[in-house]
Design brief:
alpha/beta, Amidase signature (AS) enzymes, eleven-stranded mixed sheet, binds glutamine
């Protein structure tokens, strides 16, 4: 058992000698082994236990970084120097990263302990973590269910108590949806808040790295460390980073919460709706003004998302050609065959589907009809949000229309799978931040999450509402 609820409690226990960090790390390594059936980790770094003593000394002498003592798992799409970086793909099965991603540099600098790399959908494409070369991840809440995706391993690792916190990535919901399915907190920052340097690109204008945690204070501390300008990422923002970890419950800054009517239509599971209605009543009681709003272009989000992200991915994944690095087919007698065979054998089904779709929407005859039009719709979706945020400080929606589904249930129908992200992709289209907060359970005891969206660079509102809601539960 972990004898603490969050990082500051953990530090207290270490300082007063009740908890040994070394034993704590060994405990996690042992848990990872005993819950191996979850398949949450692609790689475990057992030697990280060697760092524990050193960091414990720093904690006791008052020289430790902000994350000292935190045990962190990293989605296997983020570079850690000299460690495997597979993106859960056969294409990169034997690839080791050459440098640290900026987020990894930051974690190391603040004395976080990196325990391993987590399983995910191949190149972060999926909503159930079933598209992994290493096999599906199970949901620790109910092992017959998916943990959500694509950051399913990172979410399962936190939910199952295999580490303190983890990093995921979110291109269309891959942090928020698995957080919701596993009953934990997950935050996707504003596009540009956290450097993407060292993140394997899926859809570059959508991708963001963000934290998972089982409590709101660890979530905000990790977010604070990850955020900030990075000259190695030209899309990273020069704006100052607020001290997210110091935000307590400043909900006085949040007056109005908008409820977009388009997000409560058909297909929303009854118990999810009920849990959200209950939360809305509570928030009203606590003095928030709840206002119905409209995001009129919501019906176009999934189509726009899949046109633009597949276009970007078809270009980003062109680098895996069997020649430069990654998987190389043995069956090739000329250059064209080498490309074709390596890519045919190295990529999984979903990745190939997206490359084909993306190549199609970018092709000369269809570019205007699909890609260019989708770019325009993206702008309209963004404008809907900008207009809404003139009236409200936060937008409240379900994270997912349903709770975790059975492993295998949606595998044969990609359209059904894509609908898992109906409430999450809009934030990536608009570049705004979003969070999923656990608020209850359905009749099968599966977790339900609520999503809050904020204006660009207003993560502080998300942190404040997360703190407020976690207080309500106490
Ligand atoms: N599930 C979405 C997709 O398959 C989102 C993925 C993500 O956010 N990485 O594209």
């Amino acid at each position: 058992m972990i004898p603490y609820a969050n990082h500051s409690e953990k530090i207290e226990l270490i300082k007063n000698g009740t908890l040994s960090l070394r034993e704590n790390v060994l405990y996690f390594i042992n848990e990872i082994k005993s819950q191996k059936d979850l398949n949450a980790f692609n790689f475990v770094f057992e030697d990280c236990v060697l760092e524990a003593e050193n960091i414990e000394e720093k904690i006791n002498s008052g020289t430790a970084g902000k994350l000292a003592g935190m045990v962190i798992a990293i989605k296997d799409v983020i570079s850690i120097k000299d460690k495997p970086l597979t993106c859960s793909s056969k294409m990169l099965e034997n690839f080791n990263a050459l440098y640290d991603a900026t987020v990894i540099e930051k974690i190391k600098k603040e004395d976080g302990i990196i325990i391993g790399k987590t399983n995910c959908d191949e190149f972060a494409m999926g909503s159930s973590n079933e598209n992994s070369f290493f096999g599906a991840v199970k949901n620790p809440v109910n092992r017959s269910k998916v943990p959500g995706g694509s950051s399913g391993g990172s979410a399962a690792a936190v939910a199952a108590g295999l580490c303190d916190v983890s990093l995921g990535t979110d291109t269309g919901g891959s942090i928020r949806q698995p957080a919701s399915f596993t009953g934990i907190y997950g935050l996707k920052p504003t596009y540009g808040r956290v450097s993407r340097y060292g993140l394997t690109a899926f859809a570059s204008s959508f991708d963001s790295i963000g934290p998972f945690a089982n409590n709101s204070s660890d979530l905000s501390l990790l977010l604070e460390v990850l955020s900030g300008h990075d000259e190695k990422d030209s899309t990273s923002s020069p704006l100052d980073v607020p001290k997210f970890s110091a935000i307590k419950n400043e909900t006085d800054k949040i007056k109005r919460i908008g409820i977009p009517k388009e997000y409560f239509g058909e297909g929303l599971q009854k118990e999810v709706r009920e849990a959200i209605d209950k939360l809305i009543s509570k928030l009203k009681e606590n003095g928030f003004e709840i206002k119905e709003i409209s995001l009129p272009n919501s019906e176009y989000t999934i189509a726009t998302y899949y046109i633009l992200t597949t276009a970007e991915t078809s270009s980003n994944l062109a680098r895996y050609d069997g020649a430069k690095y990654g998987y190389r087919s043995k069956e090739s007698n000329n250059l064209e065959n080498l490309y074709r065979n390596s890519r045919s054998e190295g990529f999984g089904k979903e990745v190939k589907r997206r490359i084909m779709l993306g190549t199609y929407v970018l092709s000369s005859g269809y570019y205007d009809a699909y890609y260019k039009k989708a770019q325009k719709v993206r702008r309209m979706i963004k404008n809907d949000f900008m207009k809404a945020f003139e009236e409200v400080d936060l937008i409240l929606t379900p994270t997912s229309p349903f709770t975790a589904f059975d492993i295998g249930a949606k595998l044969s129908d990609p359209m059904e799978m894509y609908l898992s992200d109906i409430y999450t992709t809009s934030a990536n289209l608009a570049g705004i931040p979003g969070i999923s907060i656990p608020i209850g359970f359905d009749e099968q005891d599966l977790p339900i999450g609520v999503q809050f969206l904020a204006n660009q660079f207003k993560e502080e509102n998300l942190v404040a509402i997360a703190n407020h809601i976690s207080e309500l539960k106490k």
